[in-house]
C-alpha cells in the first residue's frame, strides 16, 4: 500500500511593475517579489498493512481464502508425514489408545500434497467448525458422520473419493497411505460440492515483530507424553528462534524433502477425556476451558485456555495471550492424570 504525502513547494515569481508619471514620462521599471506556496504530492512506501490471520506473518493483500483443515495420521507407520511444515496451526489429540492424530489448519500457504489422511472424530469436526474451515478426512466415526451429514462443516471425504481425489501411495500400507493434492482438494470443494472457498477468516492475536519481548521461566526443552507412552519433544534453537519437534527419537520432518517442522509457539492444554467404546474412541471436552502452558522463545508461562467463538485461546487474567508470528502447535492432553504428569521441561 502507498500513501500520498503533501509537501509545500515555494514558488518565487518576479513581477515587473511600471507606470507613468504625471508628465506622461515612463517611470523606471522596478521588480517586486511575491512568494506562492504550492502543494505537490509524492508517493512514499508504507509498511504492509496485512497479515495472515492464523500465522501473523506479513501478507501482500487481505487473506480471504477459507481455512482448509486436514486430518493427518500419526501412527508410527505414517511417519514422516507430508505437508505438516506448511500448516499455520496443528492440533494434536488422542485418537485410539495412545496414538494421536493431527488437525492441520492451512490458510497462509497450502501444501502441494498432504497426508497420510485418516478419519474424523466429533471433536475434530468441532475444532474445524470453530474456524469456519473446510475439512478433508478419510473416514469418520458414527458421531462425526452424523455431524458431517447434517452440514456442520463443509467437507470432502476419502470414503466417497478413494482412488479419484484421494490417491493411495504404493510404498505404504492402508490405512496409512491416503493422500490428496491441493488441486484435488479445490476440485472436490468447488466442482464436486459447490462450496465457496473465500470469505472472512477468524484471526488470532499476534505480536508485531518489533514488540516481541517474552518474559517467564526458561524452558528450552519440552516433553509431552500421552498416557505415559507416546512421547513428543520440542527443542528450542536460539539461533533460528524456532522449536523443532520430535516423536520419540524421530524428528518431525517432511517425507519427501526432509525439511523440519519449525514452530514459533507450543501450547499444551488439559481437558476432560472419556473413552466411549471398546475400540477406544473418545469424547474430548473442548468447551470448558482449563489449565495450559505456553512455550515461546525458549520461555514457558502458565496460562489458561478458553473456548472463544469455537477457538481454543490462551488467556491470562481474562485477556488473550499474544502469539509469536509463525506456526503454532497445540497439544491437548487428558486432565486425568493432568498436565503436570504429561509435561516436563528444562
UniProtKB/TrEMBL annotation:
- DUF3048 domain sequence ranges: 54-189, 222-330
Entry's Pfam families? DUF3048 (PF11258), DUF3048_C (PF17479)
Matching Gene3D superfamilies, A to Z? YerB-like (3.50.90.10)
Question: What is the protein's name according to its record?
Answer: DUF3048 domain-containing protein
